[in-house]
Each structure stands twice: as C-alpha cells, then as structure tokens.
Amino acid sequence: MLTYFLPGAITMAFAVCGLFFLRFWKTTRDRLFLGFAVAFFLLGIGQALLGLAVVPEEERSYLYLFRLAAFLTIIVSIWLKNGEARRR
Predict the structure, then answer these.
(1) pLDDT attached to residue 38
(2) How far is CA 59 from CA 44, 53, 67, in A?
(3) Residue 63's closest CA among 82, 48, 80?
(4) How many CB atoms lie within 10 A of CB 69?
(5) Is-above-0.85 flag for pTM?
(6) Contact 47/71 with Cβ under 8 angstroms?
(7) Which class for 73: exposed (0-12), middle (13-18), buried (19 or more C-beta within 10 A)?
(8) Average pLDDT over residues 45-65
(9) How confident is the model at residue 69 (pLDDT cuts 50, 70, 90)?
(10) Rounded CA separation 27/9 (Å)
(11) DSSP symbol at 55
C-alpha cells in the first residue's frame, strides 16, 4: 500500500509547488516563475507515471525524460532571466 501512497504524495507536492509558482507568475508576469511552474508540473507528471507504471525497472528509463525536460526548463528560464538583467 505504501508503494502507491508515496509516489502520490510526491506528485501532489510537485503539483502544489507548480501552483505556487504559477500564482507568482500570474501576479508578476515574470517568465522565471512560469519556467519553474512548468518544471514542477513536469516533475509531477514524471513521478506519477513512475508510480503508476507497471513495467520492470530496467524499462522505465524513458520516464526519466520528464525530469530531464524539467531541469532543462529551469536552466533555460534562469539563462533567459540573466540575459534580461544584462540588457537593462
């Protein structure tokens, strides 16, 4: 039973973090907050799929592409934010 509870709790925590950053993006319209919101939603989707996947461990590697996409989103968001600061 705990095998289904923990991935669900982690997925919910990622979703709450995504909503948190989405709220800040809504008030400030800063792309950095939008990037973090998208990244946390991607991490939540990846975690949910990992928890629900009924495939052997060695065949789950494609599900980690969600994490890669999330971290790349964060890196690009920070890079764009730093580029904005240099142009001012």
Answers:
(1) 98
(2) 20, 10, 16
(3) 48
(4) 16
(5) yes
(6) no
(7) buried
(8) 86
(9) very high
(10) 28
(11) S
- Cα–Cα distance for residue pair 70/87, rounded to 1 Å: 26
Per-residue pLDDT, 48: 93
Residue 51 in contact with residue 8, Cβ under 8 Å? yes
Contact call for residues 46 and 62 (beta carbons, < 8 A): no
The per-residue pLDDT for range 1-54, each reduced to its tens digit, is 777 789 899 999 999 999 999 999 999 999 999 999 999 999 999 999 988 887
Are the C-beta atoms of residues 58 and 75 closer than 8 Å to each other? no
Token readout for 58 is 């060695």
Find tokens 């990244």 and name the residue. 39
Instruction: State which amino acid sits at residue 27.
Output: T
